[in-house]
Automatic annotation (TrEMBL):
Residues 68-277 form the SsuA/THI5-like domain. PANTHER family: ABC TRANSPORTER SUBSTRATE-BINDING PROTEIN (PTHR30024:SF21), ALIPHATIC SULFONATES-BINDING PROTEIN-RELATED (PTHR30024). This is ABC transporter substrate-binding protein. InterPro entries: SsuA/THI5, TAT_signal.
Length: 349
């Protein structure tokens, strides 16, 4: 496992950077770092092209996130190698905003994160392009209260979330707004996910809104009722997680970007078709002692066969952008379609 401290000097400030308004100074800093890194990346690409060697690529990922299991599949089954890529994993244990900053500043070439976390900083100018929607299904809303049967029953209730900019909080706030409920009528209380269960048992909250693997494991351990997921209704065919690529990589080396996308899509499809074997491959990367059988069941509940690119991905991004306007995350003046065209270009060539 590589050490994130070596690759992200500014990681300690990441959550504040992405959970609040990104300053002009912060954007200039990200741009300047990316400008320093980009020439080195181009030099490496030229050397690889001239020698026929595999192109070095750095992928940021979180080994604790089951959503990222196809990265381990792609490594073990050689999907990256088949595309002429030599991939190095940069592991991050925090939220996916750290991954986004790693990509935006050129410390990584790509990584997988949640669209509802990343769209705001992309609107603010982070130079990352969304290349493929990788899957859906990892967001869950749970309760132990028999009187709470749907999102509509959350008015006036307290719900545990990891932070106020959480993509899971944003998703369920959007669903509440669509039902005519002001999200501010729900008390979103911040806790670490490993304390969600205790907060519920103490009665500090009446529901939990989080992502896998934590929410799946809490649901099974505490026999909680699942109120909703991000696959319900017309969300069934939408992604929640996306592969983001360094903007300069997409612009200057489109062939390399396309190869990376092909490898990830192939791994996603194989994961969907072989959840048991995928779970076996991924299990050693999970710090907690989670069995391959549990991971397999978790993978089956997701849509890892979903691999939206091009026009389909842009449609999903535009819809998410419009959704985020309803809860005042995205500026009302942002044109959702034009924004999607910029941040989700055609990468497969």
């Amino acid at each position: 496992m590589t050490q994130p401290d070596r690759t992200l000097a500014s990681a300690s400030s990441t959550r504040r950077l992405l959970a609040t308004q990104v300053s002009r100074r912060g954007l200039l800093r990200a741009a300047s770092i990316a400008g320093l890194v980009a020439p080195l990346g181009l030099l490496g690409a030229r050397v690889a092209a001239q020698t026929g060697a595999a192109r070095p690529i750095k992928i940021a990922w979180s080994p604790t996130a089951v959503c990222h299991s196809p990265v381990s599949v792609a490594l073990e089954r050689g999907y990256f190698t088949q595309q002429g890529l030599a991939v190095e994993n940069l592991s991050f244990g925090g939220s996916t905003d750290q991954l986004l900053e790693a990509i935006a500043t050129g410390h990584a070439d790509g990584g997988i994160g949640m669209a509802l976390r990343w769209l705001k900083p992309l609107e603010q100018g982070f130079d990352v392009k969304l290349a493929v929607g990788t899957h859906g299904g990892c967001m869950r809303l749970l309760t132990a209260d028999a009187n709470i049967k749907s999102i509509q029953d959350l008015r006036g209730k307290s719900v545990a979330v990891t932070d106020q900019a959480s993509p899971v909080k944003n998703f369920f706030a959007i669903q509440a707004a669509n039902l005519g409920i002001d999200p501010d009528e729900i008390n979103w209380r911040q806790y670490p996910q490993d304390l969600f269960g205790e907060a519920l048992r103490k009665g500090e909250v009446q529901a939990l809104a989080g992502d896998d693997p934590h929410l799946y494991l809490i649901r099974e351990r505490d026999k909680l009722t699942q109120i909703a997921t991000n696959l319900d209704g017309d969300n069934a065919d939408r992604t929640c997680c996306v592969l983001g690529l360094r903007g300069a990589l997409v612009r200057n080396e489109p062939d390399v970007a396309a190869k990376l996308v092909r490898a990830v899509v192939a791994a996603q499809k194989w994961t969907a078709e072989n959840p048991d074997e995928s779970a076996r491959i991924f299990a050693p990367h999970v710090p907690a002692k989670v069995s391959a059988d549990v991971l397999s069941a978790m993978l089956r509940s997701h849509t890892h066969g979903h691999a939206s690119t091009g026009a389909q991905l842009r449609s999903e991004v535009a819809r998410f952008t419009t959704d985020l306007k309803t809860i005042k995350v995205i500026k009302p003046t942002t044109d959702a379609v034009k924004f999607a065209n910029v941040v989700a270009p055609d990468v497969l060539i």
